[in-house]
Every structure is written in C-alpha cells, then in structure tokens.
Design brief:
The strands form 2 sheets. This protein has a two-stranded antiparallel sheet with strand order 1-2. The protein has a two-stranded antiparallel sheet with strand order 3-4. The chain contains 17 helices and 4 strands. It is mainly α. Vacuolar cation/proton exchanger (CAX). Translocates Ca(2+) and other metal ions into vacuoles using the proton gradient formed by H(+)-ATPase and H(+)-pyrophosphatase.
Length: 428
Amino acid sequence: MASLQEPWLLENGNLKGSSKEIRHGRTAHNMSSSSLRKKSDLTLVSKVRCGMLRHLLTNLQEVILGTKLTVLFPAIPLAIAAECYGFGRPWVFGLSLLGLTPLAERVSFLTEQIAYYTGPTVGGLLNATCGNATELIIAIFALWQHKIEVVKYSLLGSILSNLLLVLGTSLFCGGIANLGKEQKYDRRQADVNTLLLLLALLCHMLPLLFRISAASVSLTEVPTLQLSRVSSIIMLLAYITYIIFQLVTHRQLFEAQEESEEHGDDLSEETPVIGFWSGIVWLVGMTAVIALLSEFVVGTIEDASESWGLSVSFISIILLPIVGNAAEHAGAVIFAFKNKLDISLGVALGSATQISMFVVPLCVIVAWILGIEMDLNFNLLETGALALSIITTAFTLQDGTSHYLKGLALLLCYVVIGACFFLSKTPS
C-alpha cells in the first residue's frame, strides 16, 4: 500500500515523517499519548468462542484497558451520579475534570486507529480538527450558556499552558536527563508555528487597541465585533492554508531524520488493534461522553470557584488546561527525556497553533451564528500575557538547540502568570 511507504507526522496540522516511528498519519499528538498506553493481554478474550462477543470484548480491552489512565475512568460514572443525585456542585466539577483526562487520550488513540485505514492525509486532517476536541467542546458549551469569559479564559489558558508549561517542562526535563548530549530540534517546525502564533496575536491585539484608542467604548463596540469576525475568517483561511502547506505542497521540508534505533513500544503501534467502523463508533461515543462532562464542567465552574475560594479566571486559565491535557503533556515530557524534542515541540507548539488559529476563530464564528457577540478582545491583562508568552517562546527556540535553563525560564514565566491570575480577581 502507498500509505505504508509514505509515513507522515501531522501534529495539529504540522507534518513530519519518520519511517521508524510514524506510520499511517501518526501525529506528535498521537505519539505523545502513546507513551501512556499499555499493551493489552488478549489471552482470555481469544478463548471466547462467540465471534461477536469476542470482538466486543477485544474492543473493550483495547479501548478501556489499553491505557495507563484506566484508573481515572471510574470518575466518569461518579460525575454522572453526582449530577443526577444532587451531590455538591464542586464534586461534579472535580470528577468531570478527572474524567476528561483519559477521554482526551483515548480520542487520540481512536483517531490514530482510524488513520491506519484512511491513510496519512485523511488521518492528518482528522487530527488537524480533533487534536484539541476537549477544549473545543468545552468552549461550545460555554458559548451555548453565554459564558463568553469562560470561553476566552479556557482557550487562553490552553495556549499559555502549551507554550510555557508543557514546552518549559519538556525542555527542562530533557536538559536535565541529557546533560552530556547536545539537544537539537528542527527549527523549521518552530519557525512555522511561531509565525502563525504571531499572526494570531496580531488578530487579538488589533480589537484591543481599536477599543483602547477610541474616545468612547460605545463607539467602538460594533466595529470591534465586526473586526473580530473578519479576523476570525482570515485566521481560519490561514489555518487551512497551513494544513495544505504541511500535507501537500511542502511536506518534504518537514521530513525528520530516520531514527537509528528500534523501539518496541513504537513497533507495537504498527498495526491497528480495532476495526475501522469500531473506531468510528467508539470515537462518536467518546465524543458524546466528553460533551456530557464538558456540560457539567461549564455548569458548575462558578460553584467550584466559590467553594474553593479561587477566581473563575484562575480555574479556567490554569486548572482546566492542566487537567484536561494531562495525558498529552505527560507524553511530551517523556519524549523529551528520550531526547526527541521534535515530538515534544510538535505537541506543545502544534496544539497552541491549533487553538489560536482554529479553535478561537471557530468559536467566534459559531457565536456569530448563534447570535452571541463574542470578539477577539481578551482584555489588556490577558492579551499582554499572551503576547509576552509568544515572544518569549520565539526567542527561546530561535537557535535550534536546547538546555535545561531555557525550560526553567519558560516554567518560571508560567508561575508568574499563574500568580497574576490568582491575585487578579477576588472570589465572590
């Protein structure tokens, strides 16, 4: 098959190839999550004589028990029970967050399984739209409930978390674990993502500057909204062009060097473990559960804020991204330990690019369709934090090499920003 001869890696639209480690459109997002997977023991299941029952049990074994995060799955029924039986709303919020963690990793696994049958291009496109499904679904439910500030805070937090926390932890841990080696990565990946992040920053800053420069806020309210919608359309077009650039026209620019060593964990992912239609059904089911838990999270965030004594901004910007993407983040750090920074950068920068260039403008367009006035003005403090984070990350990655001090600097930036939002608003 042609797909066997052209392995490509697309992290949220960012393409790389590696014949040893990447097959059938596997992504940096997939490979990051795969570090938390475990090989299923199908000895008992294979003894079941009924073919349909054996097929069902095999799917349950691979999907539910095929991850090291299986211990968190009980949080899902507990969250549903807490909501149905009127337990404390903060409990519903906390359990829903825990339940979203393994679901995000399993969505990555299922998209990878489907990519085995569709080939690298369709698999890459699937990941380009589903790479941050959890954040998108939470944002849509928050929009539906007219909680625009929660939408902005959660998406901003995801970008900051990827740029500073995930990337910083990866560079720091990778530098400590590889003190005797020079850590290098492909600058082309970082350059392309940084360019798009700066474009997204421009689209965020102009509505803010437009409103600040006016004599009266009321005079700029409608023009700011119109500018945001036009900018969102342009950002979406730029993201589509970005996908074409990586998948079609310039994919050869992002080919990685072939690894000289074999890894058993990677080889175990060389063949699909569930069928195509089984993967589709599981993906739809997982997405439905994510939607349910996301509705719980959005509906109980104010109660959790009041009960825990934390502002909604701090919970949305700091806690939601850390818990919701814990599996992906842990995988990025694990690959940094292995001195594979291209994968770690693919996870951090690719996710930040997808959120800023795809999820944020898509939310503005969806809000427009729903008759909700959401703009790209994230306020002065939030936009300033985003700008400084992008600029700091760009300077950190400009020379193509890494050491632990760069990672520490990014982590300290994240700590300072977290402290700022912790103190910026007094809980009600």
